[in-house]
């Protein structure tokens, strides 16, 4: 379950990073 949590956290980070990037554009 730790691996799943890590994957979910990574996905959230990517989502936030992509959102901030598109906002800057």
UniProtKB/TrEMBL annotation:
Biased composition (Basic and acidic residues): 1-16
Highest taxon listed in the record's lineage: Bacteria
Region (Disordered): 1-25
Identification of the protein by name: DUF874 family protein
């Amino acid at each position: 379950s730790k691996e799943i949590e890590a994957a979910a956290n990574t996905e959230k980070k990517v989502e936030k990073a992509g959102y901030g990037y598109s906002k800057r554009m």
